[in-house]
Write a structure and sequence with these properties.
- The chain has 246 residues and is an all-alpha fold.
- Helix content is 75%, strand content 0%.
- The protein folds into two domains: 92 residues; 95 residues.
Length: 246
């Protein structure tokens, strides 16, 4: 979905504006995350692919327009610094988001699977139970070892199915948290982002009238100031001031 949406986001922004496109993309991301709340063990794989497609399509209409917008509202002299700050914030924010959501997922799964492991026979070591609580992969490894050690396969399979359900419940919690965060972001963008007209070739050359929006006017005035400064420092042959007196 992101491969399809991102290259076409520029034309979409020119037609609807940054605010509508980014807000719409965040709404699609929220809908995809809501779809994950209904994910079950027997959910067909094609439904999961549809959810991921919607998620990617929404992100394609968020990342590219947001990156372009942050660059367009900066003066030309600060474009490099703005790009560096943007990349830093995106990487740090992404790392923190993954860490926080991953911690919530691991903590919730450990709490869920702890009750399921009580179904194991009394001779099952306590250390193995603690190791199984670390992650769903660790749980599967411990249960495989328990089967190899001769524990009843029926009991082990019951705990295995319960562990899958526990992990799914933990993912539902993280999806719910993500939905809330994305909805808040959509509200902030939808109501807080000013209407900024995308820069085109005409506006960059100054052929179009000044926009009414104050944010647009600020961008245009700064661009005009840099053009005048550049013309003063590097006059062209068409500039009367650059002609040698006869």
């Amino acid at each position: 979905g992101q491969i399809i949406a991102a290259p076409r986001s520029a034309k979409t922004v020119l037609r609807f504006g940054y605010r509508k496109v980014i807000t719409g993309g965040l709404i699609l991301v929220a809908l995809a995350l809501i779809g994950l709340l209904f994910l079950q063990l027997d959910t067909p794989i094609w439904m999961l692919l549809v959810v991921f497609f919607i998620f990617g399509f929404g992100m394609g209409n968020v990342i590219a327009p947001a990156s372009t917008l942050m660059q367009n509202v900066l003066p030309l002299a600060r474009a490099g610094a703005g790009s560096a700050v943007q990349n830093t914030v995106r990487q740090v924010g992404g790392a923190l988001g993954v860490a926080i959501v991953g911690t919530v997922l691991a903590t919730q799964y450990a709490a869920n699977v702890k009750g399921s492991l009580t179904q194991m026979p009394p001779e099952f070591p306590e250390a193995a139970k603690q190791a199984a609580e670390e992650s769903v992969i660790a749980t599967m490894g411990v249960l495989d070892q328990a089967t190899a050690d001769g524990l009843p396969a029926a009991v082990v399979n019951t705990v295995r199915e319960a562990a899958y359900v526990d992990f799914l419940a933990a993912t539902h919690l993280t999806s719910l948290i993500s939905v809330i965060v994305v909805i808040v972001a959509a509200l902030v963008v939808g109501f807080g982002l000013p209407h900024i007209t995308p820069l085109t070739k005409k506006t960059e050359k100054g052929d179009s009238p000044m926009p009414v929006d104050p944010a647009d006017a600020l961008v245009q005035m700064e661009a005009k100031g840099y053009r005048e400064q550049a013309q003063g420092e590097y006059p062209t042959s068409k500039d009367p001031a650059s002609k040698d007196p006869a």
